[in-house]
Structure formats: C-alpha cells, structure tokens
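batch job 7 of whatever, protein = Synaptobrevin, longin-like domain protein
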Amino acid sequence: MTSLFAESHNMVAILEKLDAAEGFEQIIDFLSGSYINHALTVNPHVYISCIKQFWNTAVVKRSCDVTMLQALVDKKRIVITEEVVHEILQLNDAEGVICLPNEEIFAGLARMGYEKPSTKLTFYKAFFSTQWKFSIHTILHSLSAKRTSWNEFSSAMTSALICLSSGQRFNFSKYIFESLVRNVDSSSKFYMYPRFIQLIIQTNIADLSKHTTRYISPVLTQKVSANI
C-alpha cells in the first residue's frame, strides 16, 4: 500500500478580495460569513511525520453503535468520531442535511441555473455559471474527499452546494468523517484531510516540537478564472 499526500486535496481557501478575485466579491463574502469558513481557511502547521503515523496506524472501531477512527501518533492514541470533526472544524451542522432526495437535487440544480438537465447523479462544473463555479471550485478542493476528476462531482457535494445556496445546513461533519473511515481500508488509501487530521492531533498532543518537517498545505489561490 502506497499512501501519498494529494496535491490539490484539502487545500486552504484564501477568501480575500484580491485583484485576481474581481467579480467574485459577493461569493467571497458569502463563504466568509458561512458556517464552513473555519474549515475552508484554517491552516495549521502540518507535520509529515504526524500524518504518516496517523494513517499508517489508523483502524476503524465500533462500540455501542458509535463508529470511531483510532490511530497512534507518538505512542498516544488519537480517536476521531463524527462529533470530534464537528467540534474541531466548528461546523455546527449536527442537524444538517446528509444527502438530498434525487428530486430535490434536480430541482435545486434547476434553481441554480445548471445547464445540463440529466437523470444521472454525476454533475459537471462546466455547466454552472461562473459565480457558482467559484464556489464549487473552492468547496471541492478544500472540503471534499476527492483528489482527482475535479470537473465532476456526485450527489453528496451537489447536496452541499444546494444547501448552501438555499440557506440550509449540509452535514459536512458526517461527510468528512465517513470519508475518513472509508479511506482506512481503501485500495487507493492516501493521506486524506491532512489539515483536519493535524488539528485533531494537536488537540491531543501538547508538545509536537520533535516534529520538524512540515507539509505545506496547498493554497487555493485567487487565480480562479484560469482554473474554473
């Protein structure tokens, strides 16, 4: 098994009104004021050795109907549950939508001006307006479990976008936690969500001074017009 950091995954969103973001000011304001702002922008010092230890020892445990992810970092047990993700990322989404019914997805897409009516549950960034492409680009690269095929996405991320557009809350905590769980035994396992894993590690281990080699989290720059 070869585990790797994914270059364009779990990127840090820069929600600043720079010159390169001209025309996207309203979307930037919206994301900055949303409940996912912290998860989009938090940028801890990520240490390669911490992330490697975590994913190389991670196992899924189930107890009393609670699923948890357990790993060892510096011989200290790190336990992650959906509630831990919820608290660390300040998401306040415990009562949020998990996945919208298909009919609500298609109705929501129509309201958003999606230009490719379809009965399939794979959707394409290219068929949204430029403003929506900015939001999709940001959320996919920063919060989704994807590491390839950035121009398409499934019903879960579509539900998230529709919820954001209509003022509902999508349960990102559950989505992120279940993605972490699936990654443990995946044949294509990789170092998923390094920013978020590091945040959890540093709340459990006070002294990380012996870790020196940092993984520089990729930044989602404002040169979005060329990327969307």
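notes: The longest strand covers residues 66-73.
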